[in-house]
């Protein structure tokens, strides 16, 4: 199914690729699309994801778009600005109540362009910790950010 999905995406046959998407568990689709993008490093994978987002926007799809930009598509250029948009949309669509989406936004404080300021990152850490007081990522980031800003 992986090769079939890849062939459909590469040929821009998004309608048939979408049928496969709807038959899969989302996590399976997520993993397969990232694997495909790792293998072919082609922006058409993102175009297919945009096609799906235009049909039905969701935080899950925005989080997957974020992952495409910060993992397999990074060598194509400087994709972090695109990732920022998708992280912000996922946070918005989850009403700032999803720690995973917030962590993705927080990550953009660490990229070379530092797309999230230290002040905003501290705010994000507090939001994450309000939702999950044991969140290790937020705790360690907050500690490091306070050290840097003092």
Largest sheet: none
Please indicate the percent range of residues in DSSP E strands (runs of 2 or more): under 5%
Which secondary-structure class do the elements indicate? mainly alpha
How many strand elements?
0
Helix content: over 70%
Mean pLDDT: 94
How many angstroms separate the termini? 53 Å
Describe the overall structure.
Helices cover 73% and strands 0% of the residues. The protein is built from nine helices and no strands. The longest helix is centred in the N-terminal third of the chain and has 15 residues, at 26-40.
Write the layout of secondary structure elements.
Layout: H1 2-10, H2 14-23, H3 26-40, H4 44-55, H5 59-70, H6 80-93, H7 99-107, H8 118-131, H9 136-149
List the main descriptive attributes of the protein structure presented here.
150 residues; mainly alpha; 0% strand
